[in-house]
Amino acid sequence: MARKITYQQAINEALDQEMARDESVIIMGEDVVGGTGADGEMDAWGGVLGVTKGLWAKYGDRIMDTPISEAGFVGAAVGAATSGMRPVCELMFIDFMGVCFDQIFNQAAKFRYMFGGKARTPVVIRTMIGAGFRAAAQHSQCLYPMFTAVPGLKVVVPSSPYDVKGLLIQAIRDDDPVIFCEHKVLYTLEGEVPEESYTIPFGEANIVREGKDVTIVALGRMVHQAMSAAQALAKDGISCEVIDPRTTSPLDEETILESVEETGRVVVVDEANPRCSMATDIAALIAQKGFGDLEAPVELVTAPHTPVPFNGALEDLYIPNPAKIEAAVRKTVEYA
Amino acid sequence: MSKDGIIAITMPKWGLSMQEGKVMEWLAEEGTELKPGDPVMDIETEKIANTFEALDAGVLRRKVAQPDDILPIGALLGVIAPADVDDAAIDAFITEFQASYVPPEPDEEEGDGGWAFVEAGGYRLRYAKMGDGTRHVVLVHGFGGDADRWAFTQEPLAAHATVWAFDLPGHGQSSKAVRDGSVAALAEVVVAFMDAVGIDSAELVGHSLGGAIALQTAIAHPDRVDALALIAPAGLGPDINGDYLSGFVACDSRKEMKKLLQELVADPELVNRALVADMLQFKRIDGVPEALATIAAGFHDGTRQTLDLRGGLAALGKPVKVIWGSADRIIPASHADGLAGADVTVLDGYGHLVQLEAVAEVNAILGA
Which fold has domain B115-366? Predict the structure, then answer.
């Protein structure tokens, strides 16, 4: 049955159910066991924000704390994946990925191709993204566009408790490397989630709200900002369709293009920095394949081309918000 | 109703989970003379879109709700009154209604108000009970459906009876692993459900596969079944839309699902995004495709139904009503031809989900 749980609980439940279902599923990462070994402390945390709490007590050595050496343990996870395991590796913040790009870009992403389809690399790298946590420039970025650019990787950016559970189970069962991007501000978000295991296929966008005047494409936390804007705009008679691609690679081009065909106006919202982002990628897609449907230029609402500020007031200005989205929608509607 | 014959049209409650509805479009103009069953407006909920039909007779005097308004159940949508009631009285009625209207509290914590679970026949079954009459009615949904298929049936019937709706094994929020998916085995689940909730005997209302299950329950356990109402039932002839069944078992995309669900109704507009999303969420739960395949194999061989209960029906000697939509594209209404031992009504122009499409007509036949 379905009941309300948080985004964070939904991730924990997906991990728990897949570990119970398949012995080859293991978890590794910094502090995923999360204790010093003292009685009563061993299972006190479970990851920096407690996502893997409770799993060590159930699965013991299948949950492994690693040294603070991303290059080492991500490489080990990729290797384990090629030899029959299904590791779910937690790399705390996506900002730290830079230290293990070779393992991800050049090894995990290439094995299936370079071994003529004979190698599988079923590794999931879970990582936190996003600003709004007062965590400053090195713990707040939305770097999913970089991984989206690399063939051989699948990239997931879930926006709701229901989606995060189904997409994580899909990611674990998938035979390719998956970069699984969890927005830390969403961890406390509650929503209805079935108790049972279920999957959501990659490359299927969710039409979060149907509308006929403007298409808003938004990812992760931005889905909620877009929904707030859409609700406000509805009061003025502007009907917005909100599309959440859910995965950036593969990308559900068809759902986006079909929506633009109906509305002719589009706003893409992306918390990532503006250059070479999902916003520019989706705008280019529409310019190339949906140009004839457009009634107005494609509007983009993104973070500015700056690091994420530590100053709270500046960080709030940095993140795309409903007011900016509303203004962009009005601009496309008013375009003559 | 007020003393002047002024009647409020209010937001209906379609199914247990409905808390609010969105006004899509008025289908009647102010000044129109309405009779019960006439279309009043299109309403969309999280689960379903449908046409709201007049419950009372009178002139539609005032449209209070506007398209795109999202209103809680019981909220004032419009006002019906005899033509000779003056406008001031209508205004006073509206003012008084709005002043005293209190939206219902959202359902209990879990948001599952009304749903309960019971262990029966080795399965965990979700069910909802409405009403408290001495007459018991058990609603049995069809293949791929769930108790929500009775959203427009259960509450009206509950005015006169205790009405139970449950999710069959492999469906809705009941246990998903189905041991034996045959109609005979599922009929035993109906009896186990009745045992578990303490019903000695009941009228069974079954839709589609649920019709065959209800009929089989009556044949195998005549002492537990007082009467039957079979809506577009399986088990009364060889024909069935095998492509629909196999398509539904295999389907994993929004587009395919929408196309399939549209086969179920005469009016494709009834299949909205929420219904499609709901069915896909159900299909994507571990074990559901296997459960559905097991159940499908229990009553058809890919192209034809393998179960013939016509003789059993003729020999029942109980009141049996059969309701069919003439435009049914899943199981043809011709299966009702020459049916012995049943009171047959074929409703013109409706599809397989006739209880959702012809709400007033079906409920009238069922005795709501």
Answer: Rossmann fold (3.40.50)
**Fold (CATH) for B7-100:** OB fold (Dihydrolipoamide Acetyltransferase, E2P) (2.40.50)
Instruction: Domain A2-194: state its class.
Output: alpha beta
**Where are the domain boundaries for CATH 2.40.50.100 in chain B?**
7-100
Mutate to test the interface with A, among B20, B127, B281, B283 (most CBs of A within 10 A): B281
Distance of residue B284 Cα from the nearest chain A Cα, in angstroms: 5
Mean pLDDT of the B74-100 span: 90
Whether A1 sits inside 8 A of B287 (CB atoms) is no
Which of A287, A47, A23 is closest to A56 using CA atoms? A47
Query: Which residue of chain B comes nearest to A167, CA vs CA?
Result: B284
DSSP B95-158: HHHHHH--PPPPPPTTS-TTEEEEEETTEEEEEEEE---SSEEEEE--TT--GGGGTTTHHHHT
CB of A236 within 8 Å of a chain B CB? The answer is no
- Shared fold status for A2-194 and A206-334: yes
Find, among A255, A271, A256, the residue nearest to A319 by Cα.
Answer: A271
Question: What would the CATH number be for the domain defined by A206-334?
Answer: 3.40.50.920
**B251-279 mean pLDDT:** 91
ipTM: 0.88
Q: What residues of A are in contact with residue B111 (Cβ under 8 Å)?
A: 3-4, 192
Known catalytic residue: A224?
no
Domain limits, chain A: 2-194, 206-334
pLDDT, mean of residues A227-232 = 95
Surface of B (156-185) touching A: CB under 8 A: 173, 176
CB pairs under 8 A between A and B: 36
